[in-house]
Design brief:
With about 230 residues, this protein is mainly beta. The chain has 1 helix and 16 strands. A hairpin with a 2-residue loop joins strand 7 and strand 8 (about 125-130).
Length: about 230
Amino acid sequence: MERYETYHKPKKHHFRFIIFILFLGILGFVLYTSFGNNLFLTGTGSTIQSFYTGEPAKTIQATAELSGIPVFDLNGNYPSVAIEGGSNSFMNVGNQKADLSKSKNNYLTFTNFNGKISISGSRITSMKGTASAVFVNGVSIDPSKNSLKFSLDSEFNYNSLEIKEGASISKLSYLTSGLISVNNKKNIFNVNNEVVSIGEYSGSLSISKNELLLDGALNSLRISGDSNVDIKA
């Protein structure tokens, strides 16, 4: 009696399933290498949330160029602080008093700044702390001391303020326009007269010509208005 082997034709859906799995693997690899640990979904009017692969990042890298200056406090230790401006005020430094009313453009620099600066728009409403060195228009104030207490006796109208590193802001929220980029500039948001809220920022800070520049890390970013952006580390 002759025997015949039965031939079973491969089922197409098995082949399609394998192709689908390969596609998902390739897509996942491309997304991971393109976005690193953070992937943000973008789109006007959409809510943007972070999606993590692997260990979650503790902070979000961001840069911002925003119009207008909000009301906020800078409180911490900074290697250097530079301020330019003038007003009818005095600054107490150690046992000396520097008259800031003689020039419309005083240039103040602080080394190893440890203190608090309260800002309201174009005015410094309060500033006090300690520094290892204080210079007013290039002249060192009381250089014989290693630690100097300083304070403003009244408001100071400033034109520019710069902290190159270590600037910390616990919370900032105001109506503004400008440009914000996150995730190493892979996501860029155009802000047009919207409320920007930033939480736990740390990095460089520069204020000049009624513009706020930030470059550092933050824990949260929210843009409310035409956009609907909500990012958290």
